[in-house]
Design brief:
Peroxisomal Thiolase, Chain A, domain 1, four-stranded mixed β-sheet, 10 helices, about 325 residues, 2 domains, binds coenzyme A
Length: about 325
Amino acid sequence: MMNCKMIGTGSYVPDFVLTNEMLEQLVDTNDEWIVKRTGIRERRIAKGMHTWELGLKAAERALEDAGVSVDEIDLIIVSTCTPDTYSPIEASVIQDKLGAKCAAMDVNTCCTGFINASDIADSYIKCGKAKTVLVVSAETLSRITDYTDRGTCVLFGDAAGAAVYTATEEADKGILSSYIAADGSGAEYLYMEALPLEEDPLHSDRTFDHTARFLKMQGAPVVRFTATAVPSAIDEALSRAGLTAADIDWVVPHQANLRILDVIAKKYNLPKEKIYVNLDRFGNTSSASIPLCMDEMRQKGLLHEGQTVVCTGFGGGLTYGAFVVRL
Ligand code: COA
């Protein structure tokens, strides 16, 4: 059986930097509160840019990093909870802009999207349906953020990250295991409306409240959920790979809250230096956050052949998951 190796990464963040000081002008908050509770100092905001534009730039960089041409891609998977359109899907738009001729699909598991998209890539490659898969995680959270709600607007930013996976015969390389899960009973804690409900669509005046699409979150229950869900996902992924915490070189968690980073460090007895963090500079960029971290780590020379990396995500749904990848 083939394995699914990560051979390239790419990322893109928009230029505009939204600092805590700027947020102080918008809502009743302050730099000290935001840094202490969230660890975030700044985030990037896409002004006049589509989600697919961010995704395309990340995809092009990942393909270049991997040395893969568009003709070699068998499948493009885009994870996003902030698509520009329901149709066409983002993956089709990016496929067209790249000039690729392969299959394309979107997945939406909110902030867990990169884990699910990588799990699908792994499955396609392992069963022989695809040789090379491009995963793109692109998000413009600013479009669903309520900049009058201090409980959420300090958290989110825009970004895209991408990874190229390809089939390898090397038995000990690539995605060694993955685990994806969901707990719909907590769905209300992280909520965002898509299509407004209508009593009578035939006779509706169709004047909708556009603020209904804004993301609403109850922060404390989400923290409690992640504190158990994330370790359970890591445990399951490690056990499926036949590994223990002692084998981990890096944990790359979804960048959402500081507390989960502490939970991971304590539970697995890992020095904080092994848990990658860029939350301070980009905030929570939903499904883009893990590939954004991976790409930054590659560029900084922190990732080396043979290392074992655990990627773990969680988010709306509530969804969660993890995979173990050997570089
Ligand atoms: N600035 C200043 N005060 C703020 C604030 C802000 N930006 N946001 C909230 N507050 C206030 C609240 O109004 C509340 O005031 P009150 O006690 O007078 O009512 C107080 O701070 C505490 O609010 P609370 O929501 O209990 O804070 P918290 O300690 O739970 O921290 C989060 C809030 C959002 C940082 C935290 O809940 C969190 O990290 N949640 C998880 C987010 C997450 O992981 N999302 C993932 C989605 S993928």
